[in-house]
Design a protein that fits this description.
Number of strands: 12
CATH superfamily of one domain: NAD(P)-binding Rossmann-like Domain
Strand content: 15-25%
Distance between the termini: 41 Å
Largest sheet: 7 strands, parallel
Number of helices: 11
Order of helices and strands: EHEHEHEHEHEEHEEHEEHEHHH
Structural class: alpha/beta
CATH topology of one domain: Rossmann fold
Radius of gyration: 19 Å
CATH class of one domain: Alpha Beta
């Protein structure tokens, strides 16, 4: 039995579909089962509630061989509360229920000079340490920025031909598509042969600057799109305006500063940690249809 958390999220929903294609037995923890597609709901066990709730994870992890762990973003919380305290009941349940394997979505940055000052990255690493202390075999899928982050600005791309961010336009960074992340997670969850505890970087096929992202978007959608750098103060205020806590907003400033300084570039790309989807393919298949519909 494989337990999947956050099964309606961008990554979690793809993990579910990939595992169902293999015929795996799944148990999903979901706040609202009505959000699951009928084709999924009819083929899985469902535990309805939050996977930050001790009673929910205690019930869901009973008899489980593997767990897919993804913390949902909660900007209203303090960072420590959103990552570490949210995960604490799960870590305790994993130990108590003797779950064999856990696959976790985490961030690049462990062992770098930025590890202790990178906001959500720092909180994710603390979360991972707690999960590893449960004794289960552990694979932390360490992520750079997601290609899907551009979808958050699909309106400005579609209507104003511009997107924004605090990182320098020339800074080259790795990006990863969520479907590739899900494919790696599903493969690990369905494979009972691995053991030990380690992080696994998951990197897209090339590093790109934001100016290069803009050029690719422009080429794909057929008109010029520009990237515009904004000040970190403005970036933080955008989070506060949307109701984020001061801790959460500052954490994202710290994380993006670390990215601008090179935290995501500290991991060397190899054939083993590189996944196939290019940013151009993502734009053609995902971003272009969304921008065209606006």
């Amino acid at each position: 039995m494989i337990v999947v958390t956050a099964p309606t999220s961008q990554i979690g929903s793809k993990v579910v579909n990939d595992l169902l294609d293999t015929g795996a037995a799944l148990r999903l923890i979901v706040r609202d089962a009505a959000r699951l597609p009928d084709a999924v709901r009819d083929r899985v066990e469902i535990v309805e509630g939050s996977h930050g709730d001790a009673s929910i994870v205690g019930r869901a992890f009973e008899g489980a061989d593997a767990v897919f762990w993804l913390v949902p973003p909660d900007p209203a919380k303090m960072l420590e509360e959103a990552f570490v305290e949210f995960t604490r009941p799960a870590a305790q349940a994993i130990r108590r229920q003797k779950v064999s394997r856990i696959v976790v979505i985490t961030a690049l940055g462990r062992g770098t000079p930025w590890q202790h000052r990178a906001g959500p990255v720092t909180a994710s690493i603390r979360m991972d340490d707690m999960l590893m202390a449960s004794g289960a075999a552990f694979r932390g899928l360490a992520m750079p920025s997601f290609m899907e982050n551009t979808l958050r600005q699909a309106v400005t791309i579609g209507k104003e031909d511009v997107f924004f961010g605090p990182i320098r336009p020339e800074r080259k960074l790795p990006f990863t598509a969520t479907r590739d992340i899900a494919a790696v997670a599903a493969r690990l969850l369905g494979d009972a042969s691995w053991s030990g505890q380690e992080e696994m970087p998951v990197l897209g096929p090339e590093d790109l600057s934001f100016d290069e992202l803009a050029a690719i978007i422009s080429d794909v959608i057929g008109r010029e799109v520009r990237y515009r750098q904004i000040a970190f103060d403005r970036f933080k205020q955008q989070f506060l305006d949307r109701g984020a806590s001061g801790s959460f907003a500052q954490g994202y400033v710290d994380m993006y500063r670390a990215k601008d300084e090179g935290i995501d570039n500290a991991t060397l790309r190899t054939s083993a940690n590189t996944v196939p989807t290019s940013f151009r393919t993502f734009c053609e298949q995902v971003l272009k249809p969304v921008a065209a519909s606006l």
